[in-house]
């Protein structure tokens, strides 16, 4: 290889080694070693990402909407690193990188698959059991927790015009913990919930505040927790039967 010629490796996202290598005179041994280094870095990024995701999984799903494909994220991070950031100098993945990529990922989903339409109503994810689950939830919530007849309640789970929002008579903590444990297909669940419900004071719910209430109550004993868990248990038992 010409010692006076500088290598420009560029990115590595094309099956491990980037197009920059094509303009450089490498021996087979050097290419083999370079490929080995790249593969090791990709494996380390993958391991680091999976570890970080254990902490951020719930937050990303609830606040952003979806988890990006692992391999897509790995290549995205890999392309960003400097040429000297390899092996022991490979930087750890930051929360910001994961969150930023998740935001980009969900934005692309909305652009290409029109997911925004599904967020106009609460879309249950229990298949053929959807209608039974709606009735089960209603029977548990009315009249103690909500002010609505069954016809009004059922409409929020379909693409229907809604005249009045439903007043939630319980606490915000109960509300957010119940609806985040029910299986929905919505990417922006908090925002969708605010379309259909008012709090006990007849005021609008805030999607951001719902997120805060959820994060604060995840590991705590809140008032109404047994009530919420009982409904979720009934749904699971119904699906099994």
What do these coordinates show?
- The chain is 54% helix and 3% strand.
- With 241 residues, the protein is mainly α.
- It has two domains: 19-113, no CATH class; 119-240, no CATH class.
Q: What percent of residues adopt helix (DSSP H or I)?
A: 40-55%
Shape: elongated
Number of H- or I-type helical stretches: 9
For the record, give the distance between the C-alpha atoms at the N and C termini, rounded to a whole number.
69 Å
Cα radius of gyration in angstroms: 24 Å
The chain-level mean pLDDT equals 81
Flag low-confidence runs: 1-23
- Count of domain modules: 2
Number of strands: 3
Structural class, judged by helices and strands?
A: mainly alpha
What pattern of helices and strands is seen along the backbone? HHHHEHEHHEHH
Ordered list of secondary-structure elements with their pairings:
Layout: H1 28-64, H2 70-80, H3 95-113, H4 130-141, E1 146-147, H5 150-155, E2 166-168, H6 172-181, H7 189-196, E3 197-198, H8 207-217, H9 225-240
Parallel strand pairs: 2-3
Antiparallel strand pairs: 1-2
What would you say about this model in short?
This protein has helices at residues 28-64, 70-80, 95-113, 130-141, 150-155, 172-181, 189-196, 207-217, 225-240, and strands at residues 146-147, 166-168, 197-198. The chain is mainly alpha-helical.
